[in-house]
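INPUT
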Amino acid sequence: MSALGTPGPGEAVDRFARSAARWDHAPVEGLDWLAERAAAHPFRVERVPFAELDGWSFDPGSGDLGHRSGRFFTVRGWDAKVEPVDGPPRAWGQPILDQPEHAILGVLVAEVDGVLRFLMQAKMEPGNCNLLQLSPTVQATPSNYRKVHAGAAVKYVDHFLEVGPGALLADSLQSEHGSWFAGKHNRNMIVEVDPDIPVLDDFRWFTLGEIGDLLRLDNVVNMDSRTVLSCAPVPAIKGDALHTDLELMSWLTGLRARRTLTAGPVPLGALTDWVRTPARLHHVEDRYFDVVGVAVQAGSREVTRWSQPLLAPHGTGINAFLATEFDGVPHVLVQAKVECGLADEVELAPTVQATPEHHTPGAAPAFLDEVLSAAPSRLRFDVLLSEEGGRFLDAVSRYVVVDVDPFPAPDRFRWATTAQLSELVRRGRCVNVQARTLLTCLATEPAR
Amino acid sequence: MSALGTPGPGEAVDRFARSAARWDHAPVEGLDWLAERAAAHPFRVERVPFAELDGWSFDPGSGDLGHRSGRFFTVRGWDAKVEPVDGPPRAWGQPILDQPEHAILGVLVAEVDGVLRFLMQAKMEPGNCNLLQLSPTVQATPSNYRKVHAGAAVKYVDHFLEVGPGALLADSLQSEHGSWFAGKHNRNMIVEVDPDIPVLDDFRWFTLGEIGDLLRLDNVVNMDSRTVLSCAPVPAIKGDALHTDLELMSWLTGLRARRTLTAGPVPLGALTDWVRTPARLHHVEDRYFDVVGVAVQAGSREVTRWSQPLLAPHGTGINAFLATEFDGVPHVLVQAKVECGLADEVELAPTVQATPEHHTPGAAPAFLDEVLSAAPSRLRFDVLLSEEGGRFLDAVSRYVVVDVDPFPAPDRFRWATTAQLSELVRRGRCVNVQARTLLTCLATEPAR
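OUTPUT
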């Protein structure tokens, strides 16, 4: 097996696998703990007009919506043009979130009784439909931990800023939503610590198996947890993948080399298809998403009161892998997807990544019908999960894995094993955030 | 050994290693062949004022220098600001080459008598000090092979556009000079073919050992050959590297996550420190580089007459690795270098990458003195090599590997094995073009 397919240090693979197969607590205990933490903190989020956002304003020249500190993020205009090799070009303008800072998304792990435990946080994010979800140990931008907020210190962040020798288990830069963010990357880290470190309020140890249970419930495990956990090494497959690792990577390289995307910032005020009202920025046909303002009161955040813009998508997205076996070796069907805000233009995405209501009848994306009409017995995973609640309001997507009979992959698609995709995840910036969530779902799947 | 350190398919490693240890022809035969090809073609390159460049002009608004087709490349202005975590910020403006197209740099290989042979080309580039150098089989942008030139077809390019099953040996996107190009990437490929393919004029088979011989002569093997060959897998080291592969990659990830560079295009005419005369664009203090025009007459290119701008650096650069052993395991000292045009901000660079005359006395880069004052017996490699002759005029750098006694790496430096760096090369966009040249030098080093 080539370098790409090697699952990482064998010992680390085994340690994560053992934790994925271990349950010391029933899911309800985790849910009870989350409910208790939610009750302990008086969170309140309400929609407010832009004029009531404290510290945020529209630039008189560009119309961009930014914070007076120049930090956090800015809502800008974005012009995009895609010129497919086969097919007509498409060009459009849209608002986009520009966040130059790379956040750290970090999970601490510790071994107890020979099994890795993950220190997870009950964290409120204003955009989450249920406010509080299971989050990584640390989820913080430099603005957070360098105190632009003028709030409390970010707990446990020092473990990620200064990693002890041998303690690092994963570390890579990963993209986030390529149609909502302009070239955003976060640093995803897993770091091992002494099991005796203090466990603060709002934090709790979970095995990977227990997190997998919670991941199968609607809107419990947040996006940041899902992407960090996708960086854990997974066991190598037994048997041959349909494509070599080099062929798979070459396919992505070749598509990136075509340069079919041209995209860059424009003044937000110059977008012709977007309308700003006192309460929201929206598309003239009320499609895609709105940008809105919220005011937050919270007890467990670095500061206890703030307001900010959020991107509020229209409709429920669907992210699905078709899965099958070739010669007994499990594969999923990945799509090479151009997204206008991806710094690398193209990443590997789920088979289907779409919001059905955005598509006119007859122009549905490939395989959407197969997913929507799949028999329940074919669904290995089917759950509603929230996208990042610090930037997106009620952004809920349906995540699905559908078992299908094998068939040849069409253009722009390839069959790949989860071990191959996992290795690409650890390379960074090859597998998009929706596909990474599905990989975490598959990696925590109980043995069948 | 982890995934990162795995040297790729063992069989491929052995095949490249066998070719690196095989010589069927003395270096003089290769030189004679290059001289013969040079004599067969009436190349002439002369400096011309900008006004005589056919198809190239300065945009009346921005002052950018571009081609009327909008293709090839554009000389733009570039504003850069680096804010190091420790140290004062630096900000400057400069001209930069903007070439959105990804070229294919491809070498065909074929096995004869159990040994891989590399199909190399005698290719003229107008900026080369000796015009003709040993080049990859294919070195072409989509503009070349899709006929914007209205010239002859690019020979052998089909082997890279449609790769046969099992024929792919390397394929990755790589950066080029980060202080002269804005985010330029090329696709570096090695593809195996049937040894019976026709060998056209200006092409010849070489073993890797023979190419290594020529690489040790001044200005014979061009930059494109060097970067493609750096993508070949190298044998794993015996013994432990000083850092694990994950630690090495994490170090690069952490530096990238800091976002210390802010850079982007500005109108070329708006640069305050740069002066345009009819014959050249230059810095007010005559430092760094000029942009000039050349007119070319050639027989073996896709078109036989053209003119174009070139970037003409001042002075001779020096790119050097310090090399040593830890517990008998060879390491080189890599630098994490921010370059203003790198799409990924930071890549791993040689220990020293500098142009001595650009530095005021007393402010020399780290380790420059060690390299310049090294005893001849410490120099494992010391040769003058040309940077890409299609964009740079007389851009000659001294490439050096210096044996030193072991010492702890200072901040911004790490000791790494060549196998580790080779794996990072195959990931793409982690190791800069100067370091890749040095890796090719080391990979073709005769056994000591």
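end of record. Confidence is low (pLDDT under 50) at residues 1-8 of chain A.
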